[in-house]
Amino acid sequence: MQKTVVVGLSGGVDSSVAAYLLKQEGYNVIGLFMKNWHDETVVINNECPWVEDSNDALAIAEQLDIPYQTLDLSAEYKERIVDYMFAEYQAGRTPNPDVLCNREIKFDVFLEAALNLGADFVATGHYCRKDSEIINGVEMHKLLAGKDKNKDQSYFLCQLNQFQLSKAIFPIGDLQKSEVRKIAQEQGLVTANKKDSQGLCFVGKIKLPDFLQQQLQPKKGEIIEIPEEFEQYKTYESKTEIENLAAPFVYAVEDGKNKGQHTGAHYFTTGQRKGLGVGGTPFPLFVIATDVIENVVYVGQGDNHPGLYRKALKVIDKEIHWIRTDLKLKAVEELECLVRIRYRQDLEKAKLIQKENELYITFENPQRGITAGQFAAWYIEDELLGSGVIS
Fold first, then answer.
1. Is 156 helix (H, G, I), strand (E, B) or coil?
2. Is 48 a catalytic residue?
3. Which of 48, 128, 158, 201 is catalytic?
4. Which of 12, 129, 141, 199 has the fewest CB atoms within 10 Å distance of its CB?
5. Which CATH class is domain 4-212?
6. Closest to 122 measured CA to CA, from 27, 2, 199, 35
7. pLDDT, mean of residues 110-139
8. Closest CA to 286 of 270, 273, 269, 304
9. Prediction pTM value
10. Is 101 a catalytic residue?
């Protein structure tokens, strides 16, 4: 019996080729465009406006002769993604909305809508792969990195569960980006030469300060430069307890020098260089910490400033997520693996250490810009096993 697949058509080349390949494979394909955003005042012009994208998605559906619908998920997107972003920034954390968008929108609300249309599967244009294996009598679905290492997007799917993976198809995961472009050009698809979107999931590139100022008001505060000789850095080097290695550095205004003013500590994130508006130092200033309670931004000079680096991080129990539930660690268990703490970062050698109420990740090499609110994802070879929100 012919299987039905609903493809999330974004109006880009990747989802266009995904839909084409599925039709070639004999699936009954339905195209669905997700509208997640109404406020165009904070979207950067010509950087993925949803009207243009929806028109391109419709054109692809017509070219491929598949049914097409637009699904307005803006209410759900605001509740599950936008409100979450505001709350995280207000708390001094840096969220990753694309990871949440996949978990909460594409593979939840969108998936439910697709199943209600009679779909057997949903498909996206992600550069990742899926495999399945019977383990201890249970079918276990595996999330694998895309074959194109420069485009691998498995990290963005690090919060998916077994049910969501069971319904997912990733048609371009075995292809290089150049091959995807070539297929689109050979088939004359209207999106063949369209520039890739660099913005938020199905929203586009946004002006983050304008976006945040919708709810988080500007509030002037001090920018304090912390010297490399700060005492905590010296004692950190001698620490061996995992709890101490994972703890963020703590600063006070009297620990450094005032370098100017900022417009609100909640607008800044660890590792940030641009937007400080402070010059006159021998080396560029980088944000090493923010204090949203006292409204202070702490900075250090140079990319090698010790305040930018830590050897470990912590994930509290309720924020730990295992895709491979059969491999979930019990208390006191450890696992040698590879970890990345942001998209496009090289995988780093690390060890997971499960304690009673939290998971620690210790790295072979100190990591730059470990940021609360971001996701750490752990792999063995090219399989993504699980992830967690950094505390």
1. helix
2. no
3. 201
4. 199
5. alpha beta
6. 27
7. 97
8. 273
9. 0.94
10. yes
